[in-house]
Write a structure and sequence with these properties.
6 strands; 3-stranded antiparallel β-sheet; disordered N terminus; alpha+beta; 32% helix; 220 residues; globular
Length: 220
């Protein structure tokens, strides 16, 4: 036992102890580095997507917003938007999210880097983009509103984007499914799964009175 007082306050690399002046200086330096990091991050904060930069995503979101308008009353009654998180490192590309009008979102980006400058996303068609955007919208709405969306009016269960005409055992990537994107319902206990509506056409599933009210609202 060495008998040196206070050696326990120093680390194995000779760092100053908590009770010594050097510790305070190190703390101030660390705080300064953290503040600089926050300032740098602020330059790359997310913002609303510039109109026209991702036309494929914008067109798909306009379709999905028709279903949102037909079935939900959002806070502020504003449609979903595209939010962009810039890529500061230049490796992954800017990330685009489907968000509420106030900028909040949840879930994965919609692969904006695959859609820049006219490039098409895998597997390379508008139906794929619409499906991805519909899934992203669903994640954001369900997480932030704490409710299932969209609901099948016949069975009262949540629906999911799928190619038209799929069976209950369909899985993503199955090449046999080539129909347009629909909202698909698993059905009840009898297993009566069905396509409820084309994505963008949920208004057609509403009762006549609600459909007419929606059309009147759209003309205002």
């Amino acid at each position: 036992m060495s008998g040196r007082a206070g050696t326990g306050d120093r680390g194995s690399r000779g760092e100053p102890g908590r009770g010594e002046p050097g510790w305070a200086e190190a703390g101030r330096a660390e705080a300064g580095r953290a503040e600089a990091g926050r300032a740098e991050a602020g330059r790359a904060e997310a913002g609303r997507a510039e109109a026209g930069r991702w036309p494929e995503l914008e067109a798909a979101l306009a379709v999905v917003n028709r279903d949102v308008r037909a079935t939900l009353t959002l806070p502020g009654r504003e449609p979903l938007i595209l939010m962009v998180t810039p890529d500061r490192d230049g490796f992954d590309g800017d990330q685009v999210y489907v968000a509420m009008a106030d900028g909040r979102s949840h879930g994965n980006p919609v692969h904006s880097d695959d859609l820049e400058e006219g490039a098409e996303p895998e597997p390379g068609d508008a139906a794929a983009v619409l499906t991805v955007v519909a899934e992203a919208a669903q994640e954001t709405l369900m997480e932030l509103l704490w409710q299932v969306w969209p609901l099948c009016r016949e069975h009262g269960t949540g629906m999911h984007p799928r190619p038209a005409g799929t069976s209950g055992d369909w899985y993503p990537g199955e090449t046999a499914a080539a129909g347009p994107p629909v909202w698909w319902c698993r059905g009840g206990r009898a297993g009566d799964c069905h396509d409820a509506s084309l994505i963008g056409e949920l208004a057609d599933t509403l009762p006549g009175k609600e459909r007419r009210a929606l059309r009147r609202k759209g003309r205002r």
